[in-house]
Amino acid sequence: MSIEVRVPTLGESVTEATVATWFKKPGDAVAVDEMLCELETDKVTVEVPSPAAGVMGEIVAAEGETVGVDALLATIAAGEGAAPAPVAAPVPAAAAAPAASGGSVDVMVPTLGESVTEATVSTWFKQVGDSVAQDEMLCELETDKVSVEVPAPAAGVLAEIVAPEGATVEASAKLAVISGAAAGSVAAPAAAAATPAAAASTGKDIANAPSAEKAMAEAGLSADQVTGTGRDGRIMKEDVARAAATAAAPAPTAAAPAPAQAPRAPVAAQDAAREERVRMTRLRQTIAKRLKDAQNTAAILTTFNEVDMTEVMGLRNEYKDLFLKKHGVKLGFMSFFTKACCHALKEVPEVNAEIDGTDIVYKNFVHMGVAAGTPQGLVVPVIRDADSMSFADIEKAIAEKGKRARDGKLSMAEMQGGTFTISNGGVYGSLMSSPILNPPQSGILGMHKIQDRPMVINGEIKIRPMMYLALSYDHRIVDGKGAVTFLVRVKEALEDPRRLLMDL
């Protein structure tokens, strides 16, 4: 029997995706929930799991192809122990109709992307009792990286909201229930929902993950002590670890919230009435955690210098019109700083390295992170191989990444893998600051406001446009000499941009 693998629902306003990577090829054996391929949209990366066990058949949509929602991706030849045929919703549609008519459909958390295991329900757009149309937006989830919209898998009435606003849900958890779904609109979700029902009537006969079975045996736990979060309630290894931790340390878990509230001093009643308490978004929570982890882990030190921006500003003013006409993008200061940093990183490679256990990993490339402020919080999109890019390529990449960051359309892959970061606080008027590292990176350059100041030039006082530079670095790997040398090389390159052309 052949089972179809189709494109899952991608979210409101997202109608197509690109097949990025196939992890399996025709003839390979696949298990239930094993990752088959990865799709990329303009918002998130979506992983497509196998709906059944069997053998990989035909790959219909090759890597690089653009596919629409519910498009056929591949087929699986069901083998011994494969998932029941009803899981393959697109094939036995007629069989699903009687169960779907007047029945209910579960609304599940969609695939959140690689390394993302949970999300927070930020907003429900529908209330219990509201009528919903298929693909109509039901709610929005927030992860530590992106926002994910959840559409209705079928038309009907919202009968129950399982996860209210503010609740933290794991991947594949149930969000809500839609009742009275029409047979024609249920499609895949209805057939998928039939499987848990069948399992409930005959007892749980769904095979748990082998790693989970081993972990349960080692922890001395039985299956009824663990809540499965995999497809159709399968118990995964992470579920066992979570259950074991809860069983081993219930007291500390219950006491955990108390220290978080301790630092807050008592507030007078008249002041409390004028306060507003807002829950931190997951993105803000992640930013806070990562920055605190950086302080706790790295030996962060900051060294300062100042740069005369006369030459860069003169060069920019002279060529900005020609640059815009030829390349279609404005010539800004960021390309000069990016080029200067790439040049300095070649001479001081430890600033571009990272610590991995007891090893130092030197990078023979520069993936430049450019910190950008957005309404949702600080994000750091990465410009890959910036050391091999031209001024025009860098300006185009910064403009494109910045726009996508402000629109909330950056994918997780676009914010990972950076080796060094530049943060420009000068756009907000900052005169001097000490930036904090973006782990596991070992260096970050802080740019600041350009301000006219009196400077002594060849024994004469002259007014020059000056900028303070700050380099924060991990003293575990970067010595003071290396940090100062790096900053001096950046200063020299900016004060005489011709040095970049001469590789001096």
From TrEMBL:
Annotated ranges, domain Peripheral subunit-binding (PSBD): 207-244
Residue ranges of every copy of the Lipoyl-binding domain listed in the record: 2-77, 104-179
Reactions it catalyzes: N(6)-[(R)-dihydrolipoyl]-L-lysyl-[protein] + succinyl-CoA = N(6)-[(R)-S(8)-succinyldihydrolipoyl]-L-lysyl-[protein] + CoA
GO aspect biological process, one term: L-lysine catabolic process to acetyl-CoA via saccharopine
The EC number(s) this enzyme carries: 2.3.1.61
Alphabetized UniProt keyword annotations: Acyltransferase, Lipoyl, Transferase, Tricarboxylic acid cycle
GO terms under cellular component: cytosol; oxoglutarate dehydrogenase complex
Pfam families: 2-oxoacid_dh, Biotin_lipoyl, E3_binding
Pathway field: Amino-acid degradation; L-lysine degradation via saccharopine pathway; glutaryl-CoA from L-lysine: step 6/6
Family matches, as SUPFAM superfamilies: CoA-dependent acyltransferases (SSF52777), Peripheral subunit-binding domain of 2-oxo acid dehydrogenase complex (SSF47005), Single hybrid motif (SSF51230)
Cofactors required: (R)-lipoate
GO molecular function terms noted in the UniProt entry: dihydrolipoyllysine-residue succinyltransferase activity
Spans annotated as Disordered: 251-274
InterPro entries with a match to the protein in the record: 2-oxoacid_dehydrogenase, 2-oxoacid_DH_actylTfrase, Biotin_lipoyl, CAT-like_dom_sf, E3-bd_dom_sf, PSBD, Single_hybrid_motif, SucB
Assembly behavior: Forms a 24-polypeptide structural core with octahedral symmetry. Part of the 2-oxoglutarate dehydrogenase (OGDH) complex composed of E1 (2-oxoglutarate dehydrogenase), E2 (dihydrolipoamide succinyltransferase) and E3 (dihydrolipoamide dehydrogenase); the complex contains multiple copies of the three enzymatic components (E1, E2 and E3).
Task performed by this protein: E2 component of the 2-oxoglutarate dehydrogenase (OGDH) complex which catalyzes the second step in the conversion of 2-oxoglutarate to succinyl-CoA and CO(2).
Name used for this protein in its record: Dihydrolipoyllysine-residue succinyltransferase component of 2-oxoglutarate dehydrogenase complex
Organism: Ruegeria atlantica
Lineage, opening ranks: Bacteria, Pseudomonadati, Pseudomonadota, Alphaproteobacteria, Rhodobacterales
